[in-house]
Amino acid sequence: FRVGPPLPLAVTVGQQVGTVDGAGSYSPPVLISVSPPTNPTAGGEVYFRTENLGSFDATFSARVGRTACRLTEWRSDTSVQCNAAHGMRGDFEGALVLSVGAPAGAMITVTEAFSYHAVNLTGGAVTLPDVGSLPTLGGFTGTLTGANFGHDDYTLAIRAGGSACDATFWASDTSATCTVASGVASRSLSMVLTHGGLMATLATAAVYDAPVLSQIDPSNGPTTGAFNATIRGSNFGPYDSTLSGTIGVTFCGGVLWVSDVEVVCTVPAGVNASLDAVVVVAVQEGLPLEASFSYDLPVVSELESSQGLSGTWATPYWGGDYLATGVDLVTITGTGFGASDYTPAAFVGGVACASTNYVSDTSIECDVPAVGTWGTGSFDLAQCETNDCAMQHVVTVQVPGNSGQMSVDNTSFVYGCPCEAGSGWCLDGSSANDWLCKDVDECSNGDHNCHVNSNCTNTFGSFTCACETGYSGDGVNCTNDDECTLTTHNCHAQATCTDTAGSFSCECNAGYVSSGIADDTVAPCLNYDECSLHDDTAGSFS
């Protein structure tokens, strides 16, 4: 009993033998399948199912693909056992090599009968460094675990997202490492392992650190926005990806990528202070740079009312209905009121305007609040005790009106104190409805600052000072005039001028008599006639 090619047939009759070549043969062996059709990459036992293999061990050898079985054992006419070597491929043929029979060394095969288990990442994991050690410039190492990576390095490849790892290292049948390339995070980022022509994918969280902000420059600017602010930090990406950013809750007009450590935000219009800045790179939002940006404070520079600009007001605003109801509308001009209506609020002396109407970033309207009853209310009516008979209260603007920034300038609105119609005199009221005109005589009560050598003259609501004759100055400061030196005296030509406090005196020279006053037509300095007693000469005698 043997296997092999066709055999000769011989018939013996007596002493004679008759033969015929190729008269018969056993059916040829057939390789039907390999079972199991798959094996782990470490290899293992497989069985070749056959027919007509023979009833005894004919010393077969077997292989899977191009790799010989580590052990081949004939089991029966229909089975051969193979201890398959480790490997890493796709679909392979199974083959039996006949080492006995005719023709010896003949091969029988079955194609695509066997494969090793595919790379398997089910239940696997990606192990990465801690958050903060995953820069977008890459260079950090991730470990991928799974199964069937192979029992040898079969030139595996790993990529993170769309970027191949800078370096990939096979470690074992269940582990490989990847030096991650630069990149940015993606919503559908996966780790893909290609090994021995087989591929496996493992979805994972964002591989890279979120952007980190450290500085914004400038850190303040006008409420109209539309200027560039440079944001510095890290992990903005190795290239220009999909970037966005916010100042407060408003998106930047655009975000320009400069480098992994710098981007530029076109600041949006807005108001308020201590706003957070945020940058989003791809799908990752960084932690906010808290309280890092402020819009400029509102600034009040000018007031305009029915009397014109505040710098041209000829007289203060005087009482009447104005005091009771605050009916006058004042336009407040300045900057930082907001590029749109953020519901600003205007105040006069800390009292809210009856209404505030937004006009533009540089203009709002205030319905001036009423002063209130004399001596009551929120305004400092004591200012009416001054000689100006007016109250000046600082105008401020807050944007937004409920909790925003307040202007700190000193532009004032002037209230006229209560007065009698047409008089311009300050009023002092003993009761809410008892208005009496009252002028304080500062000259009589000594409540003035005139010089001792000046004359105090009382006026309505004030006083004036004028230096007395013989003194010069502004009335508050007066100095004596030396009429003799200044030649502002009227002494006669033959008289001597002597200065006195506030005046002067004239005395005729020796040899002259009378008043010594030049225009004294009655008794000017006349020559004394000594000749009536002696021989007379001019001013003397001989």
Could you characterize what this model shows?
With 542 residues, the protein is an all-beta fold. It has three helices and 51 strands. The strands form 15 sheets. Strands 21, 23, 24, 27, 28 and 29 form a six-stranded mixed beta sheet that branches.
Short recap of the structure:
This protein is an all-beta fold and 542 residues long.
SSE map:
Elements: E1 7-13, E2 16-24, E3 30-35, E4 38-39, E5 44-51, E6 60-64, E7 67-68, E8 71-76, E9 79-84, E10 91-98, E11 107-116, E12 120-127, E13 141-147, E14 157-160, E15 163-164, E16 167-172, E17 175-179, E18 190-195, E19 198-203, E20 212-217, E21 220-221, E22 228-234, E23 243-247, E24 250-251, E25 255-259, E26 262-266, E27 275-281, E28 284-285, E29 289-295, E30 299-305, E31 308-309, H1 321-325, E32 329-335, E33 345-348, E34 351-352, E35 355-360, E36 363-367, E37 390-399, E38 405-406, E39 412-416, E40 427-431, E41 434-437, H2 442-445, E42 454-459, E43 462-467, E44 471-473, E45 478-480, H3 483-486, E46 495-500, E47 503-508, E48 512-513, E49 526-527, E50 536-537, E51 540-541
Parallel strand pairs: 4-11, 21-29
Antiparallel strand pairs: 1-2, 3-5, 5-9, 6-7, 6-10, 8-9, 10-11, 12-13, 13-17, 14-15, 14-18, 16-17, 18-19, 20-22, 22-26, 23-24, 23-27, 25-26, 27-28, 27-29, 30-31, 30-32, 32-36, 33-34, 33-37, 35-36, 37-38, 37-39, 40-41, 42-43, 44-45, 46-47, 48-49, 50-51
Number of strands: 51
User: Span from first to last CA?
Assistant: 201 Å
Please describe the biggest sheet, giving its number of strands, its sense, and whether it closes into a barrel. Answer: 6 strands, mixed
Unreliable stretches (pLDDT < 50, length at least 5) are 100-104, 312-326, 373-377, 420-425, 428-437
Overall SS class: mainly beta
Task: Using the alpha-carbon principal axes, give the shape.
Answer: rod-shaped
Mean pLDDT: 78
Q: What is the share of helical residues?
A: under 10%
